[in-house]
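Please check this one:

***
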Amino acid sequence: MDKELLGLINLQPEQDYLDELTYFRSSGSVPFMGRYRLIDFTITNMANSGANVIGVFAGHKFRSLLDHLNRKEDFGLEGRQGKIFVLPPDWNDPSDISQGDLKHFHNHSDLFRRFKGDQVIVSGTQFISNKNYTEAVRYHKENDKDITFIGEEVENPPNSPVLRMATEDGRVTGFTHDQDNGHLYSGVYIIKKEVLMNIVRFCIDNYKPSFFHNGIREKLEEYDTGFYDIKAKTHYFYSVQSYFNNSMALLDKDRYREFFYGQKKVKTKVSTNPPTLYKKESRAKRSILANGATVEGSVENSVISRNVKIGKGATIKNSIIFANCIIEPGAHLENVILDKDVTITEGRQLMGSEEKPYVVAKRSKI
């Protein structure tokens, strides 16, 4: 275990990117593929890369995060030294002049001062991969970089808002939204702790609100930077549509197995729910059904979370159903996302499209 690496998950810049899915929760708490949360992938990769202490800048709407992350052992952080800290900002400090996500860096500066190592890996939860960052950390340290940006180089760049990197001789010289640029930026970077602390002081002293955009992006020429191509299966989350597309793509059996059971298994909160119960007339095809679900109807090309009840004659196609939902007999759902604790009454039909899935808010009854 590399004791020199601190993990930092900064959720502040991405708190509203997934629209309806983040009305009642932080981005890291968004459920994914039936039994995971998006933050699980970031924590798993950091832990597998040597980070035994992980801080989470939670912003607001962090109650579900506190519940989900209350057992560090679930995420492979063993022993007295392993820690996960969920860190909301302190709004009551009268001397605090920081803005934006600099409030987190200012209010929780002890996280960096007390950590004895000299490297920090920073990430959000808008990017997940099936490969840890061990080789990227090694590259960063062996080349004595101030900051190493992790991303990937692709031949056919997607038409998406994912940030791109301009590179020259292995250095990152700028960031762009040029859709023809194939150097995709994951939002993950490794930075010397000393450099990080200097950036925090600069941003606060100059009333800058964004650690990344004001402290790094606008001052790139001052740092010795590097680009590391992760060369792995990746998924980016920047809208409800991208969330839906990523979920549907991972229903492919081979892709699912490769992604979730690659280098190491993705860790998540341990559940004691019983196995899925399939009643006599139930039918399931090309779907993920989590523990605790009860199925009497038909499920096709869908993701069903824990403790979902699907009534007799109900049909679910191309949909994502969060935990504790009830779909009563005869209901029909297609291209739909149901948030937690939703009830769809008997015979009701809801249909979205693949380009724009229909989202039902948490605790609704239709």
About this structure: The domain at 5-260 is CATH 3.90.550.10 (Spore Coat Polysaccharide Biosynthesis Protein SpsA; Chain A).
